[in-house]
Amino acid sequence: MELQNYSLVSEFVLYGLCTSQHLRHFFFIFFSGIYVATVLGNLIIVVTVISDPHLHSSPMYFLLGNLSFLDIWLASCATPKMIRDFLSDRKLISFGGCMAQIFFLHFIGVAEMVLLVSMAYDRYVAICKPLHYMTMMSWQTCMGLVFVSWVTGFVHSISQVAFTVNLPYCGPNEVDSFFCDLPLVIKLACMDTYGLGILMISDSGLLSLSCFLLLLVSYTVILITVQQRAAGGVSKALSTCSAHITVVTLFFGPCIFIYVWPFSRFSVDKLLSVFYTIFTPLLNPLIYTLRNKEMKTAMKKLCNQHVTSH
């Protein structure tokens, strides 16, 4: 409780992406379009998976629908605030709002990491153990995997925020980013937070790196297994998993760079943060729908049903 008496900061000032008036107007239009496309694209996937009985009963598409649901929230954590700030000269966020941003970004981000590992496990079972697929990837298993991803995200996020919210903030309140980024916020505390910062950032970095390495091992095992079973299997496996591998690389690359090398230049971190929070949620539906015949067929069917009903 003593620490809270020193926390005189009630709001934080965000530097945003740029200070140029012309660029701010351009970015407002550009990122508004990106955000709308992200939400609509992922929402269409969620609705399609729910509406199509075949997709809804398929473990792969059930997990994909959950990934799109998380992507909607990941894009909504910081993007709407950033878009609104392009029209404001002074970009402010309340102390509670800042802590909420940190909580939800880490909650959804970690939940998505674990979900991507679950999707890799699904592809491993489908390709390496096809005869046992429906048994190993039962409805209960799928629900369990989604539940574990949410619980892991919640536990990780609440542990990060519990430390951050109780730090004494008594003076500096300017964050050199367009959202409350954990490594930048804890540096504003009126105490030596170097050790705590290393501990908290390492937690996120190690979690990102561990999930990424686990995914690499999973896809490597898939390729080796298929190669041993049939000639030309590698190309078939790559075709099946390429969408997953692309999403994993795009999602984990910025995370690992920011949290494994947390003391890099802010300009680089800011660029990667834009990619991680805004572009990755947009690319996921594009990658999965453009490369997936079943999803495109189900979307056309849903569209035709909607047109016919009117």
Automatic annotation (TrEMBL):
CDD domains: 7tmA_OR4-like (cd15226)
Chain ranges of the G-protein coupled receptors family 1 profile domain: 41-288
A Gene Ontology term for the protein's cellular component: plasma membrane
Recorded superkingdom: Eukaryota
One Pfam family this sequence matches: 7tm_4
Transmembrane regions listed in the UniProt entry: 26-49, 103-121, 142-163, 206-226, 238-261, 273-290
Protein localization: Cell membrane; Membrane
InterPro entries assigned: GPCR_Rhodpsn (IPR000276), GPCR_Rhodpsn_7TM (IPR017452), Olfact_rcpt (IPR000725), Olfactory_Receptors (IPR050427)
MF GO annotations: G protein-coupled receptor activity; olfactory receptor activity
Membrane listed as a keyword: yes
Stretch forming the signal peptide: none
Keywords, in A-Z order: Cell membrane, Disulfide bond, G-protein coupled receptor, Membrane, Olfaction, Receptor, Sensory transduction, Transducer, Transmembrane, Transmembrane helix
Membrane topology qualifier: Multi-pass membrane protein
Similarity comment: family membership: Belongs to the G-protein coupled receptor 1 family.
Known function: Putative odorant or sperm cell receptor.
UniProt name for this protein: Olfactory receptor
Gene: LOC113909782
